[in-house]
Each structure stands twice: as structure tokens, then as C-alpha cells.
Amino acid sequence: MRWILRGVAAEPDGHDTSFCVGFALSPALSPFLVFPSLHGASVRPGRRSPRLIREFATFRVRRRGIAPSSLVNETRVVTLCLAYLRDHGRRVNSIRVKDIDAFVTGFAAGRAPPTIASACSTLRAFSRYLRATGRTRIDLASQIESPRIRSMNRPPRARPWRDVQRILAAIDRDHAPGRRDYALLLLMATFGMGVGEVLGLQLDDIEWKARVIHLRRPKTDIAVDLPFLDPVARALALYLREERPSHARSRAVFVSRHQPYQQLSGPSAIRDRIARYADRSSVQGGFLGTHPFRHSHAIRQMHIGAPIKTVGDILGHRRLSSTSVYVGCSRQVKRVVRLVL
């Protein structure tokens, strides 16, 4: 699907840049059991995994289009459940509801309701698979209940947009790693990138002449071509030209300051940098991490009137229900689509 975005991008200093650019969204789930992780490594059910788990994973990918990250979680839950049944002398063809209840009771200890609900959803899918393949005759799926999670039980942990601007303005771009941090956080705030997406960005993903950033959302494996806005282009150009080590072997855009100049990995380092800049800008209270930048971007889009479907496409959501949580945080609805910073 192709969208045309029109709007304005504004840097913290108030400089505005108009743009009008098209970008394509194309789901590309692999039919094979090899999946990209958040940082480029591959994830697959191991060859020592029981045949049943491998077949279930294949079914979920080929027939249901399950995202790689979700599949990893699903196979983990199914593996734990089968291990529990084996330890208690139960075979797959003799599973009863009481066995599932006992497993979920133990699994739920110390886990949050959303995690428990996700595990129950996986067990329902697994139970339907067992029945569809003739491994059991009992309809277990209809009898597996999960905790009720209200849609706004935990609203997105977003920061006020003014706080995002203050944090960006507090970054000292005259001293390393200021240009790197500014470009990195600017991408997160402008396009709602997650930490895995921005850290996984490669030099080859940027087309300077076409003014396009090629991005693949690691959670949904959806490919998105993002407009290379002037503020983002300037920030990246300054970092790449004046601060990024020219002899770094890694093709990642954002690398460490010291040898061997490896790709940045994990959200903890970025979270620490955000906390430092927030303290410098006197931004206090609330959650200070990497995800609030993504949430703030989404809520900002809703405030300025971006259609919920377009916001979901930009964020890489597959379902409108994933994006609808931001609607309750928005106060205005207009008919123009904008990416604003």
C-alpha cells in the first residue's frame, strides 16, 4: 500500500521544513523458520526442539502469518507446557483442562496479567492446532480463559511533546557523542522508531539522493520507506561526516565511540543517555526510557489529526487495535497527515 504524506517537520530551534513524499508498505513474512531478531541475528526453533513444536511453529508462520518475535514467545510457552505435562506423566493426546489450569497457575506466579493473557492465547492456539491435526478430540481452546486486560488499563508511557523537544535541545552537539545521540533520538522522535529499529539501521538503508530511509520493523517484519526529512538528514550528515569513526568496520549507522567501534546494542545505553539529557533539561517525573519517544510520536500524530490507519502504518502495526490505544490520548482530529518535530 502506498501513502502520500504532506506536512511539516520542525526542529527544536523552530526551523520548519515542508515535505511531500510517498512511501510503500509491504508485509514480507518469510515462509521459513528463520527470523530476524532485533539486532540482526537469526532466531529459529532449535533442531533439538520436539517435532511437535517445530510443526506448530511452521503452521503458525505459514498459515497464520505470526510475527517472528511473537513466534519466539509462543514456542517458549508451548515448550514449558509440554515439559510440565511430561514431568507429570501426561501425553499430548490425553491433555485435560485441569492440566492446562495447573500449568497456567504455576506459570502465572510472579508474572504480570498481560504476560499471562498472552500465554493463554498461545495455549488456545496450540490446542486448536492439536485438534485440527487429530492429536486430541477435546475442544480445549474454548475452555482456556485468560485474565481480562482493559485496553486503557495501562496507557502508553508517553512524555509531553515539549519534554521531547527539551531533551533534544539539551544535547551538546559540539562534543562527542552529542551528534550521534542527537541523530539517534531525532529518528526515534520523528518516525516513532523503536530502539531495535534505530540501532539496526545500516548505512545501506539510507538513500541520500532519493531521500528515503528503508526500514524493516523487527516486530512485524513490515518494510517501510520513510521520507528523509531535512532536519533528520542534517543531523545524520553531521554525525556521519564529523563524528562517526571513518575506519569502523561495522555497517551499522550508530556505533560505539571506542575501538573496535561496534554497533550499539541494547536499550540500556540509550536509556542512560536519555536520563542524562533529561536531567540536564530539568525534565522530571514519569518514565524516562526509549519507548516514550515512540509513544510521544504516536500521540503527537493523533493530536495533529493523522488518520489512525496511517499512524499504525508508520509505526508498523498490523492491527488498528494496536494503534487505538493512542486515540484516548488525543484531543483533536484533523484531516491532514503530518510528521512534526
State the main characteristics:
341 residues, alpha+beta, hpI Integrase, Chain A, DNA polymerase, domain 1, five-stranded antiparallel β-sheet, 12 helices, disordered C terminus
Characterization of the model:
By secondary structure, the chain is an alpha+beta fold. It is 43% helix and 11% strand. The longest helix is centred in the N-terminal third of the chain and has 20 residues, at 68-87.
In a nutshell, what does this entry contain?
With 341 residues, the protein is of the alpha+beta class. Helices cover 43% and strands 11% of the residues. The protein has helices spanning 51-64, 68-87, 97-108, 113-132, 161-169, 178-191, 195-199, 230-242, 267-280, 291-303, 308-315, 320-323; strands spanning 2-10, 16-27, 35-36, 42-43, 206-207, 212-217, 222-227.
Proportion of residues in helical segments: 40-55%
Helix/strand class: alpha+beta
Classified by CATH, the class of the largest domain is Mainly Alpha
Label the CATH architecture of the largest domain: Orthogonal Bundle
Order of helices and strands: EEEEHHHHHHHEEEHHHHH
Compile the SSE list and pairings:
Elements: E1 2-10, E2 16-27, E3 35-36, E4 42-43, H1 51-64, H2 68-87, H3 97-108, H4 113-132, H5 161-169, H6 178-191, H7 195-199, E5 206-207, E6 212-217, E7 222-227, H8 230-242, H9 267-280, H10 291-303, H11 308-315, H12 320-323
Antiparallel strand pairs: 1-2, 2-7, 3-4, 5-6, 6-7
Helix pairs in contact: 1-2, 2-4, 3-4, 5-9, 6-8, 6-10
